[in-house]
Design a protein that fits this description.
Number of domains: 2
Largest sheet: 6 strands, parallel
Distance between the termini: 32 Å
Shape: elongated
Strand order of the largest sheet: 12-11-10-13-14-15
Helix content: 25-40%
Structural class: alpha/beta
Strand content: 25-35%
């Protein structure tokens, strides 16, 4: 969302902006479908389409075109195999095609709609083409759809929005650090606590949503689907146990609890006595986070993020 906010700021400043988007990639290309970079008239640059000498040349090309308000949108294919035709100067043996979309003040409503959709945790479809830069609330049903017939006959569609939702149960100092890191990682972050006027919750500027709730009703606030990651870090053992008991039977992608091994061993024993099965409790990541001897809230957040990324990218229990 920060990417689009930067673009909106430049457009409202009456600047022309090129948005570079990787729309196709093969092999060991440094850029992947959906990677984006913006290049503004004042030479402000944000994002990346792969980095290195390849990216530098694309930025230079975009900057040279920004002097002409009528510069068209177009695509450019790059082959990363050294000094050959369409070569990028890189030797990583991949290929990528980058779309150059020329934006100006008339695109402000489109960018505003993208930002509004992302802020509300919803999804929509970005559509690019030789003469198209549009956004709709239509679900794409997959992340990307594209076809390249020629440099003048192509389209690219991408579902924008938060694919993963992180729910932090507990609004203390660790919750703030986890909110900050996961927002940077592209998660939609919601923080819950059961305490009114909690300073760390009120001052958490990183969460997309913050709610004071009754933990007995926690399941009413989290949709039951596979895109949800839940980190439980309340200020009391009894609340941890309550929240786990309300959520553990739901099909969430990840549920973890912060705490010592001794505490979480006791938690498991008590839940087994309450007739939760061992198979169900085996879904619980407890203690949450990779073992890296983390101590500060920020270090704990890194350990939690590392474990969730590991799980998200395929290494599940």
């Amino acid at each position: 969302m920060i990417f689009w906010e930067h673009i909106l700021g430049k457009l409202k400043d009456k600047q022309q902006v090129y948005v570079l988007t990787v729309i196709e990639n093969f092999g060991s290309s440094p850029g992947r479908k959906g990677f984006k970079m913006m290049v503004a008239e004042d030479q402000f640059i944000y994002g990346s389409v792969g980095g290195g000498v390849m990216e530098f040349s694309l930025v230079e090309e975009a900057q040279s075109l920004l002097s002409n308000p009528n510069s068209p949108s177009f695509i450019k294919k790059q082959i990363h195999k050294g000094n050959i035709k369409d070569g990028s100067g890189m030797i990583c043996s991949g290929e990528q095609t980058v779309a150059f979309s020329n934006l100006n003040a008339r695109h402000i409503p489109i960018v505003e709609e993208i930002i509004s959709t992302l802020k509300n945790g919803k999804r929509g479809t970005l559509s690019l083409g030789p003469s198209e830069f549009s956004f709709s609330n239509q679900d794409l049903s997959k992340q990307f759809d594209y076809q390249i017939n020629s440099t003048k006959n192509w389209f690219f569609k991408e579902e924008l929005g938060f694919k993963e939702m992180l729910y932090i149960v507990g609004g203390g100092h660790v919750g703030v650090a986890v909110s900050k890191l996961f927002r940077d990682l592209g998660f939609y972050v919601t923080v819950f606590d059961n305490r009114e006027n909690l300073n760390t919750l009120e001052n958490n500027i990183f969460a997309h949503q913050k709610k004071v709730i009754d933990y007995h009703k926690i399941a009413d606030h989290i949709p039951s689907n596979q895109n949800c990651y839940i980190t439980i870090m309340t200020n009391k053992y009894t609340d941890d146990k309550l929240v786990v008991s309300k959520l553990i039977n739901e099909p969430y992608f990840f549920i973890g609890v912060l705490g010592s091994k001794a505490k979480l061993k006791t938690l498991r024993k008590e839940l087994l006595k309450e007739e939760f099965s061992g198979e169900v409790l085996d879904k619980l990541y407890a203690p949450i986070g990779l073992s890296i001897k983390s101590e500060t809230p920020e270090e704990i957040a890194v350990s939690i993020a590392a474990e969730i990324i590991q799980v998200k990218n395929g290494s599940r229990k």
